[in-house]
């Protein structure tokens, strides 16, 4: 099969792994910088062009869309979908996952466990918002943040009020969430491919840091999920219509709660921690799904 990995940097670990494993499995795989693609949007003959070459012979694409390139990246993925190319993650699913508020609303609709979350535009109701999420300490998140950037733990009500007012003064959109103290700086990353959790790890925050992202110095260990955690991860991925995703879960006193569903989860941490060849699982999924054809998201 001819498969393109949509990535701005072929030297990133995840991109290199996908290129290597795909070629080892006998596929013709190349890295396409989606930010350098351009499109011919016309009736009956939509085309994506890269470096002057129409990409009309691809069987599948693996989108690795960065947060800063979400709008244009999703437009490129959508164009491939219109061309009938199988996308591991569709444009709408990627767009949903990048909108923290929308994704939480979708997960809530499906009855998936979440931290108590508040959202408001006006600063007039800060007190009620803080009360809604069980008071301080609480977590304040920028909707546009990634990899733990734009996430603040406010330990007191006064600190929470100050941070919320400062963010709103900058016209930033924020979420206010219950702080799951019993998680003790740990979260779980469940890597879902198709309808299965193929690998999972526990991430522990470093020292006094409450964010467990590996990019922020957190450590990781292999973990076996409980049946409820496994079911939660699969249901969350399905709700977002993501065929490849990283589902981040916290263990709370009232069961597993989903923090985020990532549409471009990194492979380095999960593969090195668990020893699972996750890249291979992605290609196995493509091999069984792309040729049969699947019901696509409406574009």
Given the C-alpha coordinates, what overall shape results? globular
Write the H/E string, N to C.
EHEEEEEHEHHEHEEHEEEEHEEHH
Sheet with the most strands, sense and barrel status? 5 strands, antiparallel
- Overall mean pLDDT stands at 89
Give the number of domains.
Answer: 3
Q: Given the helix and strand composition, which structural class is it?
A: alpha+beta
Order of the strands making up the biggest sheet: 14-13-12-15-16
Instruction: Give the N-to-C terminal Cα separation.
Output: 24 Å
CATH topology of the largest domain: D-amino Acid Aminotransferase, Chain A, domain 1
Low-confidence segments, given as residue ranges, are none
Radius of gyration: 20 Å
* Amount of beta strand: 25-35%
> Under the CATH scheme, which architecture of the largest domain would be assigned?
2-Layer Sandwich
CATH homologous superfamily caption of the largest domain:
ATP-grasp fold, B domain
How many helical elements?
9
Counting DSSP E segments of at least 2 residues, the number of strands comes to 16
CATH class of the largest domain: Alpha Beta
Roughly what percent helix?
25-40%
